[in-house]
Amino acid sequence: MYYESGAKYFWISFITALIVSSVMSFIFIVFVSPYITQKKIKVEVPNVKGMKENQASLVLKNKGFLLLVSQKKEDPNYEGGIILDQEPLPGFSVEKGSLVKVTINEKSTAEVSDEVIPDVRGQQLMLAKDSIEKYGYIVGKIEFEESDIYAKDQVINTDPALGTKSIKGTIVNIIVSTGIQEITVPNLRRKSISSARNLLEKSRLKLGNIRYTTNIEFPFDIIVSQKPPSGTKVKSGSSVDIVVNREGTY
Predict the structure, then answer these.
(1) Are residues 173 and 196 both part of a single domain?
(2) Is the pTM of this model over 0.90?
(3) Is residue 174 a contact partner of residue 129, using CB atoms and an 8 Å limit?
(4) Residue 194 is part of which domain span?
(5) What is the predicted pLDDT for the residue at 1?
């Protein structure tokens, strides 16, 4: 009697364990296994630098990524709210659903001061730089232009221009004079008017007054003299007058 009861209990326990094991195996195979065995998809990270946060978030979401603002810093060269940097960098392939960390430009809330960009026109470059930095601004690019007002190496202007109210730390570019470049007048003798004009334009000079003469010792329709003469040093844009030999009218 005791034997029969023990055997019956054994078989009930065995069948129950078998059923539970089968159910658990079914759940694992149908619901769990696909997530474990599924190959993770990698997607190329888009470039969101230069975008606003909302726009970048939408672009990343469409690619299956999440945006995370990890850092904020100020860069006066860019508009506030613009993304300055990102990680991972554009072009890298990472798993879909990954975070893309971005650095956003945060404009200072400081008000524009009463200080203005100083007038450094006519100053030598080094002196102008010292003046600008003394006011708390940062010297940026140095550009060069010809000027018939300011001598070589003197400051023509700044960008932002002098007198502009701006916060300290603003980048100020300086425009420096190269003076007026002197050009050697080319030889126009024995050339036609059209050839002389082209030659002068290439030399950054202009054709000036044209006079005519008749001299049978020279071919007609060519230049026989010029003023200033060839070899003379003149300023860029200067005019050269010519005398052209032509057949006389009878």
Answers:
(1) no
(2) no
(3) yes
(4) 182-245
(5) 47
Query: Residue ranges of the chain with pLDDT lower than 50?
Result: 1-3, 37, 110-111, 250
Q: 99: helix, coil or strand?
A: strand
Q: What sign for the dihedral angle of Cα 58, 60, 65, 66?
A: negative
Exposure string for 169-198, b = 16+ CB within 10 A, e = fewer: ebebebbbbeebeebebbebeebeeeebbe
Per DSSP bridges, beta strands 83-87 and 99-105 are antiparallel
Structural domain count of the chain: 3
Helix, strand, or coil (residue 205): coil
Would you say residue 19 lies in a domain?
A: no
Q: Domain of 213: which CATH number?
A: 3.30.10.20
Instruction: List pLDDT tens digits, range 41-72.
Output: 888 999 999 999 999 999 999 999 999 999 98
pLDDT in tens, 154-175: 999 999 988 888 888 889 999 9
